Amino acid sequence: MLRHHTYLSTTPDGVEYKHEHHEESTMRPATISALSNEDQISDAVLSVTPTGDFNPPLAPFRERLSWALYDFANTVFSMNIATLYFAAWLVADLGHSNTLYATVNGIASALVVLSIPVFGAISDATQRRKPWVVGFTLIACVSTVAMAILGQTGLPLIGEGVTVPGTRQLLSPGIALFGVLAAFTIANYAYQGAQPFYNAMMPELVPVDHRGRLSGMGAALGYVGSITGVLLTFPFFTGAVPILGTIPDRVIGFLRSTVPFTTHGGRVSTFVPTAFLFLLFSLPLFLFCRDHNALYGKRRVAWREAFRDVRQTLDEAKRYPGTMRFILTSFLYQDAMGTIIANMALYAIFAMGFVKGSEATLFVILTVPAVIGAYGIGKLVDRFGPKRTLSWVLVSWIVLLFSMIVAPSRTVFWIVGACIGLIYGGVSTAERPLLLSLVPDVEAGRFFSLMVLSSRAAAVVGPFVWALAVDGLTPLVGTGFAYRAGVMTVAVGMALALWMLRRVPDNFATTVRAQ
Fold it and tell me: Under a CB-based contact definition with an 8 Å cutoff, are residues 58 and 206 in contact?
């Protein structure tokens, strides 16, 4: 059987991959030397930066836009399920504790800790990321639909927006609750699991000096997705649209009769529409993106080697100065952000006195600044570098979290929230280029997986710290003070992250001087 062999050839334009036909030979691991000798990657001229990273030409605009649209798709899920509706449904509507919600979140994060680095090592061995993104996305969508089915066939139909309170007793409440929590855990795990593979696709699409812009475009579209997701699902919740008001009964009746498991209204009726939107806006990536450097041919998946590679990735991180420190930094700030965002709806209801359901309007309005901020921060990344930009973002987070704690009224809370929205996308916009500046592109998948491992390991702890602060202090000092104490734990995490970031190398300045 004939196959293409590839090797590097220096040209006036950079480094070109040459292909020749040879008889098939023994396959080697997907190291840089293997890529340069034996595996079909691309026919395009691919330059290399002075630091050794691949510096590909711009991919077609359709492919770049399709990649960025996945940020739009997955933030529909993160806003509706992980942030807005599920926690409020479980705690405010069904009356369960913050600790129960923290438990299922922690289990999902623990599953990520155990499995994603292994998947990342396998992905880097074949340089194939897209299949993992597709697979995890489909699992998340199916599990979200299962949450809606189980929630409406065994649990009480109560809470804000429910038109016909009661219970459809097809399942016992205990079995239904267990099923809902299991489905949420799987959906949350799959949503998180797609992220490192999605991030690792970026360096194949743009040159190094365009990464900040593409990352910023993805983050900006992500927050457009957050707004769109709330606007399109909220009618299934209350029969109205945030800001615009009530929708005619005839229109609501048509929507709820068309989309299954939305008839009764309430937060549980938003789950199926969310799954549909997540899948719909993921389709451009499914159809138009590809793995540019995929290694073709039948390849043995070395499972034992993959497990060992997790430990090897930790060892190799020491070879790239600042990488391990940055991953530990992400452990702190990603956990802090995840904790506050996951509990923001509950904070608005119980600490700031928002009427149940009105928190959705708050999230829509506060997300608008995030669209502007994410793309603007992407420009700052390209001009000043990802480390300096991320430092500014973390300082802003600390100031705003303390402002939230002392906010005396809902008006002040709105202002603080708008400022948080402005900087929220800055973390993901800056951290992806920062990690890519620390490690070789060909190994990006493993290190993105390691970064997710770090942040998800913290996410096992963070929600429990929040739950212990809130549930433990509520009987002693009241709900409002207890929730503010929860925000204080988040602010401390951000401050520690800023301190850790100080000693991460700023390779942006080195790269600029070398060019």
Answer: yes
Interval 244-254: pLDDT, tens: 778 888 998 89
Q: What one-character DSSP code corresponds to residue 294?
A: P
Q: What is the pLDDT of residue 33?
A: 37
Please check whether residue 293 is in contact with residue 17, taking contact to mean a CB–CB distance below 8 angstroms: no
Question: What is the residue extent of each domain of the chain?
Answer: 2-48, 61-514
Angle ∠(277,154,100) on CA atoms, nearest 5:
75
Number of neighbouring beta carbons within 10 Å of residue 324: 20
Distance, CA of 249 to CA of 256 (rounded, Å): 10
Question: How far is 199 from 428, CA to CA, in rounded Å?
Answer: 10
Q: How far is Cα of residue 29 from the mean position of the Cα atoms in its chain?
A: 29
What is the distance between the alpha carbons of residues 370 and 226, in angstroms, rounded to a whole number? Answer: 10
**Residue that wins the pLDDT comparison between 116 and 382:** 382
> Rounded to the nearest 10 degrees, how much is the dihedral formed by the CA atoms of 389, 390, 393, 394?
-150
pTM: 0.74
pLDDT over 50 at 71, yes or no:
yes
Specify the DSSP element, H or E, that contains 464: helix 444-477
Return d(Cα 148, Cα 421) in angstroms, integer. Answer: 29
User: Where does residue 350 fall: left (phi above 0), alpha (psi -120 to 50 degrees), or beta otherwise?
Assistant: alpha
C-alpha distances in Å from residue 89, one per residue of 94, 229, 424: 6, 17, 24
Exposure class string for 223-243: b at 16+ Cβ within 10 A, else e: bbbbbbbbebbbbbbbbbbbe
Question: For residue 157, what are the β-bridge partners?
Answer: 166
Cα-based angle 98, 100, 106 (whole degrees, multiple of 5):
100
CATH number for domain 61-514, candidates 1.10.260.40, 3.40.50.720, 3.80.30.20, 1.20.1250.20: 1.20.1250.20
- Whole-number Å distance between alpha carbons of 190 and 327: 21
Q: How far apart are the first and last CA of the chain?
A: 43
- Structure tokens that stand for 370 in this block: 């995030």
* Cβ(496)–Cβ(318) below 8 Å: no
- If DSSP codes are grouped into helix, strand and coil, which group holds residue 445? helix
Bridge partners, 246 (sequence order) = 240
Measuring CA to CA, how many Å separate 374 from each of 151, 371, 391? 35, 6, 15
To which residue do tokens 């929040």 refer? Answer: 466
Taking only the tens place, the pLDDT of each residue in 216-244 is 788 778 878 888 998 899 999 988 887 77
Reduce the DSSP state of residue 302 to 3 states and report it.
Answer: coil
Residue 376: Cβ within 10 Å count: 18
Token readout for 230 is 């709330």
Which helix H or strand E contains 11, and what residues bound it?
strand 2-11
Share of the chain above pLDDT 70, in %: 81
